[in-house]
Amino acid sequence: MEHGIWPSSAVHLIPVSTAKNGVSSKSRKRIMPDPVTEPPVTDPVYEALLYCNIPSVAERSMEGHAPHHFKLVSVHVFIRHGDRYPLYVIPKTKRPEIDCTLVANRKPYHPKLEAFVSHMSKGSGASFESPLNSLPLYPNHPLCEMGELTQTGVVQHLQNGQLLRDIYLKKHKLLPNDWSADQIYLETTGKSRTLQSGLALLYGFLPDFDWKKIYFRHQPSALFCSGSCYCPVRNQYLEKEQRRQYLLRLKNSQLEKTYGEMAKIVDVPTKQLRAANPIDSMLCHFCHNVSFPCTRNGCVDMEHFKVIKTHQIEDERERREKKLYLGYSLLGAHPILNQTIGRMQRATEGRKEELFALYSAHDVTLSPVLSALGLSEARFPRFAARLIFELWQDREKPSEHSVRILYNGVDVTFHTSFCQDHHKHSPKPMCPLENLVRFVKRDMFVALGGSSTNYYDACHREGF
Q1: Which GO cellular component terms, listed alphabetically, does the Swiss-Prot or TrEMBL entry include (predicted)?
Q2: If I label 231, which of 47, 238, 339, 377 is the partner at 20 to 30 A Cα–Cα?
Q3: pLDDT digits (tens, 9 = 90+) for 249-272
Q4: Cis (ω within 30 of 0) for the bond into 55?
Q5: d(CA 216, CA 195)
Q6: Active site annotation includes 285
Q7: Are residues 178 and 238 in the same domain?
Q8: Of 81, 334, 362, 415, which is the active-site residue?
Q9: pLDDT > 90: what percent of the chain?
């Protein structure tokens, strides 16, 4: 995302920068940041801008890059839903006024937006798995409802879809022109914002959006753990991680003071304000360039925002050091990674089903997967973030298959824990599939310590 492009009225908010999500050779270790334009200290406003992911000029991306003798076999895409209306309200303030109807000539614009709306408004000819069939197919309220996808969110995913179409379909011919329903696998949680984000991406991606071939499966768990969700040890890691978060917050006197000031402004007890998770609502004001709320006691302002955002960044840093979240992530992400390698292995046998898989999910889905893969430097999943697994076959040695992993268009394969070492010892441009398989089947459990060698045992380990 580039942020030179923003309505001029917002200039006072923004350190203008035209960072690209490149990775320079000097900073191989840090994923995403650009050493030339990145502020030396993590700047909360800059981080918030990256998080908003305002659609602007097309981004550079590394998807689909491979030596010419490699053939693309399958692609597995995990997305976070696009920009949404907040899930919480700051008590006693007016909700930010954002319009969730889709208007083709309003910013942000996408050439396919109008066609998307007319296609969706005809209603689905598809039968989705219940309860998805009762959700609206696109956002349509003049004043957004809580958690509803916005026009920005739809455009972000039309853009993702278009980008992936240019690479995977036009360039690599991943799907034949007469593709069939069983060649794509679609799964989403039961929220309208994830279903609609998935539909927008598909609308941008597929050459012909045929309802009869589109079947979304419903995933009740944000971890996409299907039938393997019961995992007591994972929950213990999560409880310890939440305790760590709580203790870090107690130590931050500036944060406490800020919450106190904001609580006075809106005239509620500090505890109640904190419970209303004000950052969620403030990010909406920020991303949509709507001024923060005021009451007769004063205004919530940019300084309050910066303090809370800075604490979030601190929290992420400590989370990486303390490793409790990593334990949670290894167990939380195992089922979905296991499912993904199963799909990849079937594709290596020449099976033509499920060549393109799309999981439309949440930040709490992507974060554990990134963490489990060892991508500790990756930024918190922004709106419409995408994490992609590509499976390739070496035409010169057809029995050899490799994987690439990309996060928001950046190739992070050699930052993953299962492929860091490979890069040092091997001239191969990609990571062997067996590295990923060994990681999911064995090394994820080794990383947890203890003697477990499978998911069930690791989830029920005594004396953790």
Answers
A1: Golgi membrane
A2: 377
A3: 999 999 999 999 999 999 999 999
A4: no
A5: 8
A6: no
A7: no
A8: 81
A9: 83
